[in-house]
Structures are given as C-alpha cells and as structure tokens.
Amino acid sequence: MFGKKPEANKSRAWKKLEKHYKKMRDVEMRDLFRKDPQRAERYTINLDSMMLDYSKNRITDRTMAYLLMLAKESKLAEKVEAMFKGDKINSTENRAVLHVALRNRENSPIYVDGKNVMPEINAVLAKMRKFSEDVRLGKFVGQTGKKLTNIVNIGIGGSDLGPKMATEALRKYWGKDIKCYFISNIDGTACSEVLNKVNPEETLFIVCSKTFTTIETLTNAKTCRKWLVDALGEHAVAKHFVAVSTNAKEVEKFGINTENMFEFWDFVGGRYSVWSAIGLSIAIAVGMDNFEKMLDGAHEMDMHFKYTEFSKNIPVILGLLGVWYNDFFHFNNTAVVPYDQYLQYVPAYLQQLVMESNGKFVSNDDTFIKYQTSPVIFGGAGTDVQHSFFQMIHQGTSIVPVDFIVPAISHNEIGEHHEILLANVLAQGEALMKGKTVKEAYDEMRRAGKPKEEAKRLKKYKSFPGNRPSNTIIFKKVDPYTLGMLIAMYEHKTFVEGVIWNIDSFDQMGVELGKQMALSILPELQNNASGISHDASTANLIATIRRLRN
Predict the structure, then answer these.
(1) 153 CB contacts (<8 Å, ≥6 apart)?
(2) Predicted model pTM
(3) Selected catalytic residue, list 387, 416, 453, 512
C-alpha cells in the first residue's frame, strides 16, 4: 500500500530528531527538573487569559531547537500566512480555509477569488443577532403565540459537536427560560428521547446542513417535522423550523421560510463551523453578546498564532510536541482531561477536530505515508476519569501524553469542592512525571507499618514508572472568551501537525465510503432489493437482521 518515502522523513531536522530521540528516550524528567531549577519558568507561556505549562515533557532546549527547525523546514510560517490570506490550502477540494475569517474582529479585508468575504460574514452575524434576540425576547414566537424556549439543534458531526460542546461549556450563561437539546444520531432513540421532553408549542428546531441533503440530519428533521405537524398543523413548520444551509430550494421545499435560512460557506469545514451560523443555538442560549465574546477569544488566539514567534507560540509548541511523541516515541494516543464539568464534551469535540483533520494516509505530494499521522484522541472530565482510564495512564504499558485543562475558579464554588478538584489535577501531573520507584514503594509501606514480607511482595505493584508527559493549560474561569481561545488553540495545533505531516487537514474523504455502501444496503434491509454482491460476512449479517426483524 505504501509508496515512496515522503518529504518529512527526508528533512534535515527530522533526521536530527531521529538521532536526538535515541539520547532522549531513557532520560528521566525527574532528573531534568533536578538539574534545572528554572525549567518550569522556561517552559511556560503566559497570555493574559491563559497559561500553558509544558515543562513536564521529555524535552530539552536541544529538542525544542530541532522541533522549531522542523517547523521552519516544513514552511510552517508560509502556510500560516497562506491560510490567513485566503489561499486555497485545502488542495484536494481546491478551497480556502477561513474559519479565522468568521472571528476576524478587526474586520480587515480577507479575499477569496478576489472577493472580500467579510461583508457577507458580518451580514450573517447581524442576522443571527436579530433572530436570537427576537427568540430570547419573545418577539419571534411559535404557531400558538407562545415563547420558544426549547431549542433543538438537528445536525451531525461539526454541526452537532460544536454547538453541543459550547452550549454545555457555557451553561451558566443560558437565558433563564432556555433549554437546549441536540439530535444527531440516525438512531430513532435520539429523536424520541428529545421529542418526549419538549412541548411542540414552545419548541424551535434548527436544521444544520449545508447542502440540506445529509441523510442523518434530514431523516431526523423530517421525523421532527411530522411530530410538529401532527400536533400543530402544516402552517406551524415556518414558525418552528429554521435552517443553517446554502440550499434555499430544498429549505423552502421543507416548509421553512427562506428569510429564516442562515448561510455559511465552502471555505468553512464542518468541524470548524461552530463560529458560523452553525452556532445559532449557542447565540440563542447564551445571547449574541456572549457568542461574540467567544469569537473575540478565538480572534486573540488567532493573532497570537499568526504573529508570535514560534518558540513562544502556544499552538505551535503543542503541535510540535504532538509530532515529537507521535512519530519518534510512537506514543500514538493522547488524552484530553478537562477538570471542569462544563467542559465534559470538549474531548469528544477534539476527537473530530483532530482525527477527521489528520487521520490521513496520503501526503500533499500524492504519496502514501509511511509515518504515523493523527493520534487517537480520548478523554473525559476529571475527576471521573481518574477512576476509569487513569489506571492505564499511570501503570499501563502504553504511554499516553495528557493535556490537563483547568480553570482556577469554578462557577460553583461550593465548600472545598474546587480546591479538592485543583489538588487532584495538580497531583495527577506530578504523579505522571515523578512516578514512584520500587524502593520508594517499599519504604513507604514499611513506614506505614506494613510487615516486611508484605511490603516486599507488593512493592512492584505499588510502584509507578513515571516519566509520562503532560501539558497543563490553566485559565481563570470557563467563560465565552476563554472557551473561544481554547478551541482556537486546538484548531491551530491540529493545523501545525498537519503541516509537519504534509497532509491536507481540511478534507474528510474517509467518511464517504461507508455512507455510500450504506445506501446500497438500505434497500436490501427494506426488502426492496436483492442480488447485490457483498462479502460473505456482510451478506450473512443482512440475512440475519432481516430474519430477526421479521
């Protein structure tokens, strides 16, 4: 399957890193901290609203010098500039990549095919403001004149994960009478569970589909439409449905007033679309002022990424560390652990962002890739995950770098809860780095009064290898501005990694094949077709399902 060796493996910096890795693979972070009292200070980057401590990594100044050399040889600076200029860096689809334009708060011109896209973006933001305020103030009401307080977002992928993640993260900012729901899965349970909770007279559906043809989204939307029409009649559709789409013909055919259709553009990929009209549910839930504060925070990170030298650039540093572990240490998993309940959907959001962007096996040179690209991303909210996968993180045979995300202040300061939470996240980072030697485990048990033989028997079980890397990202509080910074930071980190791996981070052709094949299998399950050629396993599974359903 694999072709000739791709460019990244030929670069001077890559070869230096391969040699350097052999010297670093057995280096203990304990020793690095002991030898360098200023290590934490030197490997910390402070912005006004966010701090990154990356000192608990298997790196030295030489490591960072080689990684920065790799960025230079990969022409990262030129590619960052090309993205912000509106060049068509999505090469397989011949498209610009301009999620940064959606939060261009300076409103400086950005051109695609010679046209400044900012007037259109500003017009959609203004339309979002008016509509969201009309819903929140009860000016745009349902068929029976009742205020629309149940907001149901119907989408999939980025049209679901982004709004769902952001509305949950900003739950403390919701309007007092607003409730948000999300339907994405084609499983009928997803529709049923939401529809069982809402009153049709008070429910607004937002259908998010650029083409208005996505099978999961349109199937769910049609089910919700029938539920509404059965309750309130055909005329209710225009009062209870709006669309985020570009297909006015299909939107109108569905029964939605095209005045309530919100546009977004080909230069915005689904997983980068939370900043666009796809964020309409966020704007209604938290208010347009707070939605725009989220854009402000993302813009600050954009400017930091665009103008800050790479040695002090948070997304660049995080991206280079990702390459260092993924391709040289072969640590091919990354855990993201926010120590804040409101950020519980951030890991799932980042799974799509990272793995759909960089899960590629063909380079921009049209060659099959021989090195590792995207890591597997997983995670969950601390401290819950300390009692699930942290056993493997600490003592497993696979080493997993961790990003810890933590606000210094909670929205819910109850007793000692947040201090205990903070103590846990700081302890986890230190424990992963330091570990506990067999001798330390033995001595600790003896000091605690354990008999000598028992301590001897258990000392290996109670030891921890340590030397396991982590980053800690700290900010004051989860608010719209900080959330915008955080998500933009990971977007740019993902872009940096894609540049180093020489891949197109902005297409997603890997989602197509299974969906195409599903369209051929569907008629067979519905007894409308037969004789289509399948492998023996799939044919047997189709027959089994048909038998069980009958």
Answers:
(1) 159, 160, 163, 164, 180, 181, 182, 183, 206, 208, 281
(2) 0.96
(3) 387
